[in-house]
Amino acid sequence: xxxxxxxxxxxxxxxxxxxxxxxxxxxxxxxxxxxxxxxxxxxxxxxxxxxxxxxxxxxxxxxxxxxxxxxxxxxxxxxxxxxxxxxxxxxxxxxxxxxxxxxxxxxxxxxxxxxxxxxxxxxxxxxxxxxxxxxxxxxxxxxxxxxxxxxxxxxxxx
Length: 158
Description:
The structure is a single chain. By secondary structure, the protein is mainly beta. It is built from no helices and eight strands. The two termini are about 30 Å apart.
């Protein structure tokens, strides 16, 4: 899920910025409850990307436009720890807390086809690849991202 905007400032070239956040926490690591005195826990993560891009629109027709972009930004990974267990005295225990975060520099490239459905309203399927420095948490420095933007184009077609 994200929010962003772009401006074509000169014929086919422009700039843009966006922020994409993972709306729900994802399980990162799960440790099962070993015994009644050793509770289990789940470590979860949530990823946020923010990008500042240059944009090139080599094709811009009445009903569709091709957008190719690339730029720099960053990635933030937040970690949370959820503990569950049971105790004879207390009963079931569920606890969640923020664990820590990690910030990384990132570069990205991508492309999308902006399809105008009515007036200035558009739908844009998009593919993006982030190249994240020192991303040891997920085993790869390359992160693909697939999304569909829904938006509105102010100022008419250029």
